[in-house]
Amino acid sequence: MAQTFDRHRRLRKSAAMRNLVRENHVRVEDLIYPLFVVEGTGIKNEIPSMPGVYQLSLDTLAEEMKEIVALGIQAVLMFGVPTHKDACGTEAYNDDAITQQAMRLIKEAHPEMIVIADTCLCEYTDHGHCGVIHEGEVVNDETLKLLGQTAVSQAKAGADIIAPSNMMDGFVIAIREALDEAGFEHIPIMSYAVKYASAFYGPFRDAAGSTPQFGDRKSYQMDAANAREGLREAASDVKEGADFLIVKPGLAFMDMVLRLRENFNLPIVAYNVSAEYSMVKAAALNGWIDEERIVMETLVGFKRAGADMIITYHAKDVAKWLAR
Ligand SMILES: [Zn+2]
Prior knowledge:
The protein has about 325 residues and is of the alpha/beta class. Helices cover about 40% and strands about 20% of the residues.
């Protein structure tokens, strides 16, 4: 019989054959695990909407870090949740605040761990917005000064990477200049370049205590309907000196991972956000899905789209599965 069709199944015939031709892989080195640090001692509060994810005090953080290191995870993303919050987010750039203490503790115990600092004000402001407020508006340029101060304070505390997440215009250059002036020209910036105003952050706001007390974040975070705007945002950050580009959320915006991959040569980071985690956990707890397969398909999807690394609350589970 003359060949009238293509035989694709030849390369799927056995597990070994599939392994041989597999195009993308998730490695433990690709994973970045987010951590939420609170003041006090003996605290390990499970976040109700995120089973298996905790707010930790410094002592319980120390235990958690041993587990993370043993699993082979080599990067963590730090969020501090201070008790004291005010209009200007003072605790964000206080050298002795909880976030800075946590970073120093991790770097002392595990110098090889890559500590990434979330650089924003919303966890530290009493209004829960990512910047300074004047007459009900988040003021851009005044916020930049505070972000610069925050980044320098975090670098002093041992942060290896600064990750600004607040979507103010000019945040990358403002932070770059502040870091350079303070002698931290070697510290890279992992910019939340393409960050959407998204309902997928709901559970995170419980974890970080950062729900806006009025209004929403739509004047600074992007409209979920826009893709070309994301390319403009990323281009600005590249021009301003970003070293990495983050797409957040990841799952519903995977096209943006691919678009950035095709348009920029910087490392691309996908943020597999809180609600993506919560939905999987809820369905898994109900016995409705195969959790491991769902998570691994999602993460390899990010890699296929072009992400180099993935910020994910599933990191510890994935590290265990990969080590089997
Ligand atoms: Zn924020």
